[in-house]
Amino acid sequence: MRKLVLASGSPRREQLLRQLGLDFTVDPSGYPEEAGPGLAPHDLARRLSIEKAKAAAPRHPDAVVLAADTLGVFEDRIIGKPGDAKEAREILAMLCGRWHSVITGFTVMDTESLKCVTESVETLVYLKNLTAAEIGAYVKTGEPLDKAGAYAIQGMGAAVVERTEGDFFNVVGLPLFAVCRVLEQFDIKVL
């Protein structure tokens, strides 16, 4: 099997790949996550994943590199990570009782042949209506402070997500079904 490199420092992405039983190396790309001017969310997520894969590729000759970028989107606006507890409360209050999207762009690149496949996956997420006290209690845990959208579905945020439509793992940070399908094109099989 080809050497697989996860070009991400996300512990959630690493955990998701490990649960599939894949053997891989972790090497964060170091590429800065900045919004591209005028890019639609799917285009931005794909573009960032491509740039992350390109940044990591030179360090790994004859390998397959997987890079990803996940964005929260509400009413065509990208929801980033909150800067502080006040912003986390504002984001959660805005999302409560409404649908928003989580979009992950991912790129799989063969560093020898330069074959590259890039896709994006969208999952809809509905947060339950929370009271100000519930929002405050959740923010006080600290969990929302480093998460896009100010919640972590794989953590205590599971108590605020009422339902999802689409790939649950996409909301965690990596759309596993789509990633596995693309990895097979690079002779990396899970089953």
Low-confidence stretches: none
Question: Which geometry do the CA atoms define?
Answer: elongated
Please give the domain count: 1
Helix segment tally: 6
Q: Total strand count, please? A: 7
- Main sheet characteristics: 7 strands, mixed
Secondary-structure-based class equals alpha/beta
- First-last Cα distance: 13 Å
CATH architecture classification name: Alpha-Beta Complex
Order of SSEs? EHEHEEHEEHEHH
What Rg do the Cα atoms give? 17 Å
Give the helix proportion (percent range): 25-40%
CATH top level label = Alpha Beta
Which fold name fills CATH's third level, the topology? Maf protein
Mean pLDDT: 94
Proportion of beta-strand residues: 25-35%
